[in-house]
Amino acid sequence: MPTSSPHLPLLLLLLLSTAAPIRATLPEKPALPISSNSILIALLESHYTELSELVEKALLLHTLEAALTRHNLTIFAPKNDALELHLDPEFKRFLLEPGNIKSLQTLILHHILPVKLSHGNWPGNPTRSSRQAALSNDHLEFSCSAISDGSCSKYVGEVKVVHFNSVVRPDGIIHGIEKVIIPKSVEREFNNRRNLQSISAVKPEGAPEIDPRSRKLPKRKANEIPMDGAQKLSVYEAMAPAPSLAPAPAPGPGGPHHHFHGEKQVKDFIQTLLLYGGYNEMADILVNLTSLATEMGKLISEGYVLTVLAPNDEAMAKLTTEQLSEPGAPEQIVYYHIVPEYQTEESMYNAVRRFGSVSYDTLSLHHKIVAKEADGSVRFGEGEDSGYLFDPDIYTDGRISVQGIDGVLFPPPAEGKKNEAKGPRIADQNAKTVTRARRGKLVEVACWMVEVLGQDSKFTTCKE
């Protein structure tokens, strides 16, 4: 009879101890590609086209693909009419703004469950309900309501399910619902944007109280804002260390408590410019090359409203070194593109349609921008120094309006210098400029100025 070797237990222990490191060095099994029979593919090819478009706009395809690798999905799809016609236009505009993509993602994920929920999983008793967590981490309540024929209508929250098992696939199911399910968090964010205390152009004020004994208005305190809401300072005086000759006061009150958070709103619109794409140079001037973002934040906090005509990167690339190298040139360029009143694409287009030509004050004192209707849009300026309203309403929050234009605007030259300035300006505009990959026009100007001063050897960026 064979005898077992005394070294056999030791050998088995050695093999078991080395098995784990060997398995760790093996390549992981790659993730399986999504099946053509997947519920996500079925949604994109279904008649729920409005929901499919929102999923793509919210950049959720990869998120849902990853969710499908872990569990099945139940999608509650609103009818197309519910999203296209019956949704509040202002709320839909809020969802589609680039800065509110997280709210849009939360809204869509609130319609998706990480479990396959069929008709039989609903409570059959009107007195009972159940809850399930959606992909948005909020809970959905499932209930039924008895109707006259003795059956029970199924509900998700307060929304009725109108088409059970609309699309069925091995990894999920789609139920058609009557309207959109709006989570409380998204509703709260939308209401905060509409809150009059943070974004309204005019702060509501109560009627003045009359003293019953003297039948006169009470005396106003020295530091109190007038009841008509007019600012004591014009926008030019508010942004300058000394008073100037600007005649017109800025519209919009600030209130004695400065309840407008100007810095936050300016930060929001600059982030929106970057997310929108094509306006990086304008954002760079406001934040890095000048202190205009801080000045704008102070103006908004004081209750002023602004409209920014933002040239896109293609227009900014046409600026020559000479136009940017003069002292204070970037500030003066931007000042001429800021209108001290709140205008949207609709209000400006309606004005030029009605009056033909409209002039707007700017933060560049004594210089106005002339707007006219051209080719179904709004054109600012005249001749070579003009720009069309190219990207309307990039950012609008009731205090700051940002309109994208396709040209850099310059004030018209004085009468005596018009003829001699026109020739060089046109030549400069038509000159072919070559910019490096992403060094940027602004860095080129800075390096040119440093080179003139003979200090270029101290900056490694200028040696590239």
Automatic annotation (TrEMBL):
GO annotations of cellular component type: extracellular region
Classification via SMART domains: FAS1
Signal peptide: 1-24
Subcellular location, record wording: Secreted
InterPro entries: FAS1_dom_sf, FAS1_domain, FLA15/16/17/18
Keywords of the record: Glycoprotein, Proteoglycan, Repeat, Secreted, Signal
Domain FAS1 intervals: 35-181, 266-409
Protein name per the record: Fasciclin-like arabinogalactan protein 15
UniProt lineage: Eukaryota, Viridiplantae, Streptophyta, Embryophyta, Tracheophyta
